[in-house]
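Cross-check.
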Amino acid sequence: MSEAMKIVRRVAAAEGQWGDDTLPLLRRIYAARGALTPEQAQPRLAQLHAPDLLGGMQRAVQLLADAIAADKRILIVGDFDCDGATACAVGVRGLRMLGARDVVHAVPNRMVHGYGLSPSLVAELQAFKPDLLVTVDHGIACHAGVHAAKALGWQVLVTDHHLPGEQLPPADAIVDPNVDGDAFPSKALAGVGVIFYVLMALRRHLRVQGAFSAGAEPDLLTLLDLVAVGTVADLVALDDNNRALVSAGLRRLRAGKACVGLRALIEASGRDAARLSASDIGYALGPRLNAAGRLEDMALGIELLLTEDPRQAGDIATMLEEINAERRAVQQQMTDDAERAVARAVVDTSMQRPVAACLFDPDWHPGVVGLVASKMKDRLHRPVIAFAPAEPGGQALRGSARSIAGFHIRDALAAINASHPGLMEKFGGHAMAAGLSLPLAQLETFKAVFAAQVQATLDPALLQQQLLSDGELTAAELDFQHAEALRLAGPWGQGFAEPLFDGVFEVVEWRVLKERHLKLVVRAPGGRARINAIHFSGWTGAAPEPRLHLAYRLVGDDYRGGQAIQLIVEHCAPAEAA
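Predicted model, tokenized:
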């Protein structure tokens, strides 16, 4: 099934302007990403776009200020992923800091309510008797839920970052940088970033009103640890604005100033807070928080982020560690099922991959299909949708879609909805990820329609799988100093890719770990140093060639400690094929 991987080396457009304290390697890497000065490479909070550029902000701030002044009950409704959980915690903590005395929160259960502010969730929320309901990380597509809340006499403020449909919900105020015509320069804010901006604007409004004349002004920067975690975990593009937010949050995390819950989660994950990177958020903290929403209830994750009790935080972090281990096992089983299904049915008789894949298994868990779709998208380099029953044995399906760069998956679903109204019950999302629901009886029809839509609109050139490399490393750069500099630089992520290098190495030793991972000891040609390398899921069943062309990330070897390094291999091929 595999097609040849093309490795393309990045080229810096200009040299850049740097001080003598910046490593030449970092200068080259930053310049290749268009960052030519320290200010561009690592933006600071002073460079943030102004909150009043966000549409709807003035009305949103007035709603919140009036609610605080009148001691109204404010209900924050989060979402069941990491962005939604951190956004909920930021909203609750921030409003309390700004003087709100009656703030409560809730979050939908994936298995019970489905995504977002649904009418069934609104019915349950009546028990809170809110005056103002604030959505975080959802709401822009929740027309029925907003209608239901308004019918009960509640005011509704939608804060979201997802793409809207043709019509906006009937909320009292909407803050979403992706609403058509919105002037905010960064369309990549995560849900947690949007609510943080609302709080900044609210604080300025209260300052003008003299609310802080009797005491110190609340320091909203203390919330940036949560903003960083939610932003990185949601895989939004790390443009200059988001990198400024994430960098500031990482500084708090590394200084040991994170909230009690995040400190407990860092400890449970075995990470060193002082050396924490955006990669650690993406691979360790985010998945542990997300696991609660995938297999259990994200209320547990939000409780962790709101508690001030270290013992309670430790207990919850331990529970999340156990849930995440279960999630990994479920994900691995489902991914194995998906790979077998692809081997049987997705590849046609010519052994060429089709342009897209829709996968379904009646035994799959709806909370994990997004991870399976992501894994299979990476393996196939095609848009993939994975479906599972919304409830065990049920006839309603929930699907999670993942796309390749250059193909807008949410727009594809919108086109399908326009040409085949009623085929999907609902859908929403981003360019690279989306969600949808449909009846099981419509699955085969949807598969055919989706394949046809992708076939008609996807540029075939996008199907060539390629890796962008920062070139070769010299022997002097293959050391712990450079690995640690790369770890603490950035922050790296979507749109500001973590450095990846390539080069030819001689294989000194090799073995297989857990029947799927290829463990190597390699040496650069003509070099003397032995370097550890690992290619996760890289075992093909055959011995590796004596000389390999590797595409890899350079990292410190935390397992061995000290000044040890290792290469995390993303792709390997015989050197002669390079």
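The chain has a mean pLDDT of 92. The radius of gyration is 24 Å. Passed to J.P. for a second look.
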